Each structure stands twice: as structure tokens, then as C-alpha cells.
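Progress note, sequence design subtask.
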């Protein structure tokens, strides 16, 4: 049986891992959104697809590039938890 304090520590570590793994993708979306907003303000084009499409492409691209690293981090965390349970 795992003590409650260890469960709380693992839950906290899982939440921090979630934030750390999602932060690069959210950062890419924010930076691309900033550039698109600046372009829209400069060109005075206010089309909704112009705002969303580049951000979507950038997020998908960053997930393709960062996907293996994210998967490795999650697998390492899960393996460590499962080995502690035995």
C-alpha cells in the first residue's frame, strides 16, 4: 500500500509534468498568434481564418516535432510509477 503522502507527491509531479510538456506547444501558439495579430493590424485584414489557420499549422508542426520527446517523458514517468508500485 502506498502512503497518502506519496500519492499526493506523485499527483503533484504528474501535474507539473503536464504543464512542462504542454508549455512549448502553448508557447508556439502564442507566438504565432502574436505575429498573426500584428499582421492583421498592419494590413487591416480581419478574416477569422487568417487568425486560426497559421496557429493550427504551427501547433500541429510543433506536436510533430516535440511528440517523441513528450512521449518519452510520459513513458519515463509512468515506468517510474509502476516500478515504485511493486
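Output:
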Amino acid at each position: 500500500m502506498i502512503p497518502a503522502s506519496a500519492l499526493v507527491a506523485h499527483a503533484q509531479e504528474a501535474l507539473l509534468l503536464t504543464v512542462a510538456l504542454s508549455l512549448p506547444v502553448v508557447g508556439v501558439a502564442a507566438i504565432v498568434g502574436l505575429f498573426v495579430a500584428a499582421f492583421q493590424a498592419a494590413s487591416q485584414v480581419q478574416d477569422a481564418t487568417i487568425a486560426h489557420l497559421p496557429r493550427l499549422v504551427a501547433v500541429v508542426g510543433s506536436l510533430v516535432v516535440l511528440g517523441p520527446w513528450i512521449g518519452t517523458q510520459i513513458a519515463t514517468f509512468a515506468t517510474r510509477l509502476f516500478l515504485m508500485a511493486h
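The chain has a mean pLDDT of 92. Work on this subtask will continue into the next period as scheduled.
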